[in-house]
Every structure is written in C-alpha cells, then in structure tokens.
Write a structure and sequence with these properties.
Blueprint (H helix, E strand, L loop, with lengths): L18 H17 L3 E6 L1 H11 L4 E5 L8 E6 L12 E7 L9 H9 L8 E6 L5 E6 L3 H7 L2 E2 L2 E2 L1 E5 L12 E7 L4 H9 L3 H9 L3 E3 L2 E2 L12 E4 L3 E10 L5 E9 L4
Antiparallel strand pairs: 1-3, 2-3, 4-6, 4-9, 5-6, 7-8, 10-15, 11-12, 11-13, 13-14, 14-15
Helix pairs in contact: 1-2, 5-6
C-alpha cells in the first residue's frame, strides 16, 4: 500500500501562500488512499491542478474537464484505477445568461462579481465565456445548479435569468489573445513584466507591493523571482501572459515572447 502523504514534504516546491491548498489536497489524497473511493474536486485553476498532480504523483489517475477542451478552470476526477469518463461524470452545468440584449449589455466583471458575491465559493463555478456579440455563458457545479438558477437574477444593474443548457450548446468562446514580445535585461519577474507591459520598474514594484501581480495563479510580491518558459504572469488592468520562448538578444539582453490575453474591460 502507498504510504500516506505528508503535506510538509511538498512545501519546498511551492510558495508559502500555497500551503493551505497543499494541506487541503494532501488530505483529499490521503482519504483516497485510505478508502479507495474516487473523488471529484471543485473547479481548480491551472496552478491548483499542478499542485494536485504533484501530490498524486504516479500513485493516482488525475483527469480534468471544465466544460470544454480549452477550459481554464477544471474539475478533477481522481482515482486509483483508470476510469473511462464521459463529460457528464464531471457534474459540470452550463448556464446561459438571458437578458435584454437590445437594451442592456453585460461585462465580464459584472458577471464574475455577481457569481462571487452570491454566497458560494469561487471554486464552485468555472469559466465565463462570450461570443463577443453579447451572449454570455458560464460553467458551474451541477450540484449547485438549483442555487445559481434561483438566487441570481441580477448582474450589475441588469436583470437576468439563468438558463441551463447542455454542454453541446456551448458558445465558441472569443479568443482575444495575441503574441507579443519585448527585450528584457534578465529573467527577473520585475524586468520581464516591465518590458512586456511597457511599464517602469518602479511601477511594477508598486504593483507587486499592492498585490496586483500573480505568478502561476498565486500572488507574487518578489520582483527578483526568476521566470522560465511556461510561466504565467498577470498584472491587474494589464492582462495575462504565458511565456513561450526566450532568446538571446544584443548586448546580453533577452528577447521574451509570450501569448497575451488583455485584461477584460471592466
């Protein structure tokens, strides 16, 4: 039988701020080892999924689904043996937000704020998507579908109605990402972020101190943190960048290329 996991053994691999998440996930994993019973998580962001996959190692099967193939937030199904899952097994409910589009408009921030302030945890709902033409949908845990449908009737100043939809009726989500590049003096977080966002190092320092910077989905305060290809860096009101490549440039500098998702209009 596999030995019980110790949360402290994973602490060196992740940020101090992530220790509560590690504690929670180790507890879930140890319960799986003890009972043998597979379990389904809430919606997890990519960093949380990385933590859970690290804890599981090669001792469990981790499968993910968030309502569609490219989903950012996903529910994980974790089992000791491989199970051939269908989308319905992940208990993900698609909602379409019905509202008078001729007379009103919705923004991502209004939808997120209404869901986050509805009385449930933010990990009980997943991605919010739009076709860019006024239609909006989001994914939620099917166990709470009745709550969302009955409790949310307004988003910002707009009166809404949530309609349950089958997953096959998902919108083709608008992709507003683009490839950007910049020349940085080093792979320090503050240097790369300043170059990519066209901000000064002092502005980046202020953003770090204000808690407006995230590295791989968790808040980061250290400008000296070293980045690598694959890291995801975000700055409030700027957007999010996934580092795709780093190449030497002239005079010992580095050309950094990334996939950039601009901040959604507030």
């Amino acid at each position: 039988m596999t030995d019980k996991r110790q949360a402290s053994s994973f602490y060196p691999h992740f940020a101090i701020e992530e220790r509560p998440t590690i504690d929670q996930f180790v507890g879930l994993f140890n319960r799986l080892l003890f009972t043998g019973q597979s379990f389904l998580t809430d919606f997890l962001d990519p960093r949380q999924r990385q933590i859970m996959e690290t804890i599981a190692g090669g001792e469990a099967i981790v499968q993910a689904f968030g309502g569609y193939e490219e989903a950012e937030k996903c529910r994980l199904y974790i089992s000791l043996e491989w199970e051939n899952l269908r989308p319905d097994d992940y208990q993900v409910q698609l909602f379409e937000i019905e509202y008078p589009q001729k007379f009103a408009s919705l923004r991502h921030s209004q939808i997120l704020g209404s869901l986050a302030n509805s009385g449930v945890k933010t990990d009980t709902f997943g991605d919010i998507i739009t076709d860019g033409q006024g239609r909006w949908q989001f994914f939620a845990e099917k166990e709470l579908a009745g709550f969302f449908a009955s409790q949310i009737d307004r988003m910002g100043p707009v009166k809404v109605r949530l309609e349950e939809k089958p997953l096959k009726d998902r919108l083709e989500a608008e992709d507003n990402s683009e490839i950007i590049s910049a020349v940085a003096s080093s792979m320090r977080l503050d240097a790369v972020l300043a170059a990519l966002s066209n901000k000064s190092r002092s502005q980046v320092k202020e953003a770090l101190e204000a808690g407006e910077v995230r590295l791989n989905w968790h808040e980061e305060e250290k400008g000296e943190s070293l980045l690598k290809v694959g890291d995801i860096l975000s700055l409030r009101r700027f957007g999010r960048v996934k580092l795709l490549s780093v190449q030497p440039s002239k005079k010992g500098r580095l050309r950094v290329e990334g996939q950039f998702w601009p901040a959604k209009r507030q």
